[in-house]
Amino acid sequence: MVALRLEGLSFALGASMAVRREALEKIGGFRALVDYLADDYQLGNKVHRAGYRLVLSDYYVESILHCESLKNILSRQLRWARTMRVSRPGGYFASGITQPFPAALIALCLSGFSAAGLAAAAILYGCRSLVALIYSRSFVGDRIFPRWLWLLPLRDLFAFSTWALSFLGNRVSWRGHIFRLLPGGRIEEDR
Q1: How many domains, the chain?
Q2: Are residues 84 and 159 in the same domain?
Q3: Alpha helices in 53-189 (DSSP H)
Q4: Residues 38, 97: one domain?
Q5: What is the DSSP track for 33-66?
Q6: 160-175: per-residue pLDDT in tens?
Q7: Do 15 and 57 meet the contact criterion of CB atoms below 8 Å apart?
Q8: Which domain holds residue 17?
Q9: Structure pTM?
Q10: DSSP assignment, residue 17?
């Protein structure tokens, strides 16, 4: 949504995409995507570069989360982050401004953990919580979210850490294999 507002859509992400057969054939079919881990991103980007207009749907795709280990979650998040970084370096780097946790931490540190710094961090997280709650209720229709709202700062710390760690390497684990991400998003198996 941020990319749409700032620069227009030139890529696709996510579990639900639709493409016209004519557009898919023009980009070389699915064969044109086999060397990429972020095939969703590449599908949208190649279709866009072929002269087609991309549209963001008004519908949300629901995800059902299953219990999994913290190691698997971190591995997946880091894989996604590194894949986005090599696919869209400038946009990914700029996405750091959307991370609220460092702003709260900076406010606390610069104020020496004073009452004003604590108030600034509390206001930031009050606004962040309100936005998340409104989004959750109004757009997603989620009635479970409010009881987990207290975990939002921890989730933001996790998101910021993953964003920062994505700059410290080009290797990712996917389906039991280690891959090296190349500039532009191509992958090769790391042997």
Answers
A1: 2
A2: yes
A3: 70-87, 89-94, 100-110, 115-135, 152-165
A4: no
A5: GTTBS-HHHHHHHHHHHTTPPP---S--------
A6: 999 999 999 999 988 8
A7: no
A8: 1-64
A9: 0.79
A10: -
